[in-house]
Amino acid sequence: MAASEIDDFIGKNDDEMLKLDQNEEEIDRIAEIFKDRCLFISGGTGFMGKVLVEKLLRSCGDLKKIYLLIRPKKGKHPDERIKEMFNNVLFDMVKKQKGEDVILSKVAAIAGDVTELGLGIQPNDLETLRNEVTIIYHCAATVRFDEPLRKAVFMNTRGTKYMLELAKSIKHLDFFAHVSTAYCHLHVKTLYERVYDPPANPHKVISACEWLTDEQVAAIEQKILGDIPNTYAYTKSLSESLVAENFDELPAMILRPSIVIPVWREPVPGWTDNINGPTGLLIAAGKGILRTMYCNSTCYGDFLPVDTSVNGMLVASWNFLAHGKKDVNQVAHMTSSKEIKVSWNEIVELGRWVIENKMPLNWVAWYPGGSFKTNYYVHCVCALLQHWLPAIFIDLLARLFGYPPFMLKVHRRLANGLKVFEYYANNVWDFDNTEALRMRKLLNERERRTYIIEKVDLDLVDYFTNCTICARRLILKERSRRYNSYGPTSYESVNH
User: Fold this and answer.
1) Domain Fatty acyl-CoA reductase C-terminal, which positions (predicted)?
2) What's this model's pTM, rounded to 2 decimal places?
3) Which of 344, 415, 427, 343 is nearest to 379 (CA)?
4) Residue 148 DSSP SS3
5) Rounded to an integer, what distance in angstroms lies between the CA atom of residue 419 and that of residue 417?
6) For the chain, what are the domain ranges?
7) What are phi and psi of 335, to 5 degrees?
8) 8 Å CB contact between 466 and 270
9) In sequence order, which residues have a C-beta less than 8 Å from that of residue 211 and are 6 or more positions away?
10) Strand runs (DSSP E) across 208-320, as ranges?
11) d(C-alpha 43, C-alpha 66), whole Å
């Protein structure tokens, strides 16, 4: 999408966003620390990875090179995948600022795969990385909570082991950042910025998965996981322990973002490339498909916009590089619950109001509605009456009129997603963010505006509106228009 089209679906003027009110007397020390450096990023084509690459190119543009580990996908060469990535609206602003040729010259693909032996990188590319790279961001991971254990171990845990082995061979490595998650030690209700014991020995788990088959691992998966609700949390916890083992040998940090949600401010408010988390709930509710959820509506989750999370990563990187690992904590959180607590009920009601009054979706199955259920059995009855029976009826009608059935498939996916959601929606965790508070005090005014890690003071109505607009245009591929005069103009006017 061209930059001129951004106004059509986000209602923002990107020219205003390009005009940063910067004090020329203050130096951007974060940009300076990346100057003339070569970076290696795994997971650079993922949701957070794309935002990280964009922010580095836009705000730290004097870096020398970004090497992205990219596996061939659907017959596309990694170089093709980079060009395809830069066609995303997310990169329109930086292309407008720097020029597309300049941006393309700064980024190069390294063909490989974190699930393959030695990352699947060719010898000549390995030599390039070993000679040139000084900073590594390991972002690659499967974020599917229901991923089979063996696959999750190979992707998340063994992949981290291979990245650490590569890091040890880098000739002039100054920083290795492992992007973990704040939700990987679920037995701890208040998580502090320190290393926790893993649920098992990661080396033994990797070895077991290497000599057992998929079927054999699947047969004992629940026994291995124990009280841990999913393979994502289990394997990310194991991965952290591998990094912690190398703290003395490597200049490494563990970065723990919480639930990463669509862009808050820049470069495109509301931008996302997936339907995970709140975006999926927003779409399902807006389409009228989601009618009931088993959830304690007074509980809250820890959400942080992806642009704020990436800012935190860059500030933490600068802090480590500028002061050395002896003077910094090697674990840092990118979280919000210490300062902001928004209940599930508030989020759903706001999202529903936005969809009903400001940005309705096209082709809805049912008028947006439904509610939380605090009783699991009541929820099951409502799911049968409001999800499964209507889905069966719609699929029967589709068959009668010669169309392929689809609604049962949709509800199976929805049910799987809700099963994961229920565990998190009925529990509460808090996360210490001492490092963020400390790093805020180190930034000058120019850096504070460029890499916002202050308390996120977002207008939830505007935020959900932007998320819905981007979901319509980028995920659902619906034609968008503005709804400034649709329904009431104020959420507060409806509720007061």
Assistant:
1) 387-478
2) 0.88
3) 415
4) coil
5) 5
6) 26-270+302-340+429-455
7) -135, 170
8) yes
9) none
10) 252-257, 259-261, 292-294, 303-305
11) 12
CA–CA distance, 270 with 473 (Å, rounded to integer): 11
* Length of the chain, in residues: 496
CA pseudo-torsion sign 321, 182, 311, 4: positive
> Which is it for strands 65-70 and 107-111: parallel, antiparallel or unpaired?
parallel
Q: Position 8: which residue type?
A: D
Whole-Å CA distances, 64 to 52, 128, 146: 16, 13, 39
CA distances 475 to 47, 88, 271, Å, are: 13, 12, 10
E strand segments, 411-459: 430-431
pLDDT tens, per residue, the chain with 496 residues: 444 444 454 444 444 444 444 444 589 999 999 999 999 999 999 999 999 999 999 999 899 999 999 988 777 888 888 999 999 999 999 999 999 899 999 999 999 999 998 899 999 999 999 999 999 999 999 988 889 999 999 999 999 999 999 999 999 999 999 999 999 999 999 999 999 999 999 999 999 999 999 999 999 999 999 999 999 999 999 999 999 999 999 999 999 999 999 999 999 999 998 877 777 777 787 778 888 888 888 888 888 999 999 999 999 999 999 988 888 899 999 998 777 788 888 887 887 788 777 777 777 777 777 788 889 999 999 999 989 999 999 999 999 999 999 889 888 888 888 888 888 888 899 999 999 999 999 999 999 999 999 877 778 888 888 888 888 888 888 765 444 433 333 434 333 3
Tokens representing residue 300 in the block = 């809250």
CA distance 359 to 83: 32
CA distance 154 to 229: 19
CATH superfamily of 26-270+302-340+429-455: NAD(P)-binding Rossmann-like Domain (3.40.50.720)
Question: Which of 140, 134, 163, 164 lies closest to 152, judged by CA?
Answer: 140
Residue 349 φ then ψ, to 5°: -65, -40
Whole-angstrom CA distances from 141 to 40, 138, 154 are: 15, 9, 10
**Which residues does residue 109 pair with via DSSP β-bridges, in sequence order?**
68
